[in-house]
Amino acid sequence: MRITIFGTGYVGLVTGACLADAGHEVMCMDIDEHKVARLKRGEIPIYEPGLEALVTENVTHGRLTFTTGAREAVAFGTLQFIAVGTPPDEDGSADLQYVLAVARSIGEHMDAYKVVVDKSTVPVGTADRVHEAIAETLAGRGVELPFDVCSNPEFLKEGAAIEDFTHGARIVVGTDAERVKTLMRECYAPYNRRAEKLMFMDVRSAELTKYAANAMLATKISFMNEIANLAERLGADVENVRRGIGSDPRIGYHFIYPGCGYGGSCFPKDVQALSRTAAQIGYPAQLLDAVEAVNERQKATLFAKLKQAFDGDLAGKVVAIWGLAFKPNTDDMREAPSRALMEALWAAGARVRAFDPEAMEECARLYGEHDDLTLVDARDEAVVGADALVICTEWKSFRTVDFAQLKQELATPVIVDGRNLFDPAAVRDAGLLYFAVGRGDSL
Ligand code: NAD
Questions:
Q1: In angstroms, rounded to a whole number, what is the distance separating the alpha carbons of residues 26 and 62?
Q2: Residue 29: CB within 6 Å of ligand 1?
Q3: From CA 360, how far away is CA 151, in angstroms rounded?
Q4: Per-residue pLDDT tens digits of the chain, which is 443 residues long
Q5: ipTM over 0.90
Q6: Might you give the EC number(s) for this enzyme (predicted)?
Q7: What is the 3-state secondary structure (H, E, C) of the chain?
Q8: How far is the CA of 94 from the centre of ligand 1 (A)?
Q9: Which one of 4, 10, 96 would you pick to mutate in the ligand 1 pocket, going by the greatest count of ligand atoms within 8 A of its CB?
Q10: Pair 218, 419: CB distance under 8 Å
């Protein structure tokens, strides 16, 4: 099957590489010429485990190609996937300008039947707007051609994107058209063998399913952070509480880890966008607003704990940070808690010395010019002579620490652990002050 994908970001590139690997012929189109030039040279612009090998393999076999040419891209596939960004607008609603630009471009260049597949996360009703944009552009050309628009939201997570795409729990397709169902079945047949994963539904339900999934996951995190904050003030240990409630199969252990707040390119913007959709139809989504507010407050806790450890005065202090990415196994720093912390520290006159196993290039791109940031090559280099260590991301390589040695290296023995990686007793036995999240006397 010939497939075109618009957008070569985390979703577009993974979708393209996986579908090519499954035997389809795939052309990925992006307006970012620099990105496409790198991809053509075999360089992968993002860090995603396994992606480089998969792209290289499929480019070599001629199943995966890249272009900046819209005409060529539209002519290529019967399926036209839209996987471009939908960042938050000024008021938090999803900005559809990139999605609609692709739609117009498809209308501009198509000369045969196409199925336009919305893979980007888009508000309910967007498929209708995409349909309109294509129809208007075709009318402007004085051309009449059949086409369909369907919704196929993506549920992959960065860091495990290939595994999620190829072995996801479900493949949601929103359409009422039999022709679209047949083509989407063919597209996803390689992933639909062991069990029926394709879920066909109406378009609006498919669009809402994606927001509901992310809002549910964000709610679990904010709920647990709320409990952690209570535990901290009530002298309880949230890690015991977590195990205590997770053992109930109605609750489960997934996604109930307390921490320093969720970040990334999806949860913050999707919770906000769903709340703005609700507001637009006159329904106040109180739970969603609370989830967002709790998360904003949580992201500020690392700084608050540091301030407390230094009696409110952080001017001139050097703070070592382990972990810049919003979660492990990615280089993505969008909305990462580390950013809220660094920006607060700089405003307070402190200096930052930071390390992340994968996000150093991204951090340099975002903050490279900042005088009060030093990026170092190893986690242990960050702590030498620093006044405190803060852990923002739960990378596996941060979990094993010689606390006695850490005590020697830090100028002041303060650890603020935003991910509850350590046993508080072991840290304190080494003579370190340990501030974790929701762990009894850690305040
Ligand atoms: P991204 O920012 O990494 O990539 C978007 C790409 O689209 C960029 O390379 C950009 O240059 C390109 N682009 C913009 N306009 C274009 C156009 N007119 N034609 C072709 N390319 C164009 O975004 P992403 O993280 O891959 O997310 C894409 C969508 O998928 C978003 O709606 C997002 O919410 C959703 N999503 C993301 C994830 C994730 O984990 N990142 C997971 C599920 C769903």
A1: 9
A2: yes
A3: 35
A4: 999 999 999 999 999 999 999 999 999 999 999 999 999 999 999 999 999 999 999 999 999 999 999 999 999 999 999 999 999 998 999 999 999 999 999 999 999 999 999 999 999 999 999 999 999 999 999 999 999 999 999 999 999 999 999 999 999 999 999 999 999 999 999 999 888 999 999 999 999 999 999 999 999 999 999 999 999 999 999 999 999 999 999 999 999 999 999 999 899 999 999 999 999 999 999 999 999 999 999 999 999 999 999 999 999 999 999 999 999 999 999 999 999 999 999 999 999 999 999 999 999 999 988 999 999 999 999 999 999 999 999 999 999 999 999 999 999 999 999 999 999 999 999 999 999 999 976 44
A5: yes
A6: 1.1.1.22
A7: CEEEEECCCHHHHHHHHHHHHCCCEEEEECCCHHHHHHHHCCCCCCCCCCHHHHHHHHHHCCCEEEECCHHHHHHHCCEEEECCCCCECCCCCECCHHHHHHHHHHHHHCCCCEEEEECCCCCCCHHHHHHHHHHHHHHHHCCCCCEEEEECCCCCCCCCHHHHHHHCCCEEEECCCHHHHHHHHHHHHHHCCCCCCEEEECHHHHHHHHHHHHHHHHHHHHHHHHHHHHHHHHCCEHHHHHHHHHCCCCCCCCCCCCCCCCCCCCHHHHHHHHHHHHHHCCCCCHHHHHHHHHHHHHHCHHHHHHHHHCCCCCCCCEEEEECCCCCCCCCCCCCCHHHHHHHHHHHCCCEEEEECCCCHHHHHHHHCCCCCEEECCCHHHHHCCCCEEEECCCCHHHCCCCHHHHHHHCCCCEEEECCCCCCHHHHHHCCCEEECCCEHHHC
A8: 13
A9: 10
A10: no
341 lines ligand 1 (CB under 6 A): no
Show the tokens assigned to 89.
């607008």
Rounded Cα–Cα distance for residues 243 and 258 (Å): 12
State in Å: Cα 350 to ligand 1 middle. Answer: 35
Q: Comparing C-alpha atoms, which of 187, 143, 188 is closest to residue 168?
A: 188
**Domains along the sequence of the chain with CATH:** 2-201 (3.40.50.720), 206-443 (3.40.50.720)
Q: Which positions ≥6 away from 57 have C-beta within 8 Å?
A: 21
For the whole model, what pTM was predicted? 0.95
Block residue for tokens 């030093």:
374
Specify which residues 319 forms β-bridges with.
Answer: 352, 388
Q: Which residues are catalytic?
A: 266
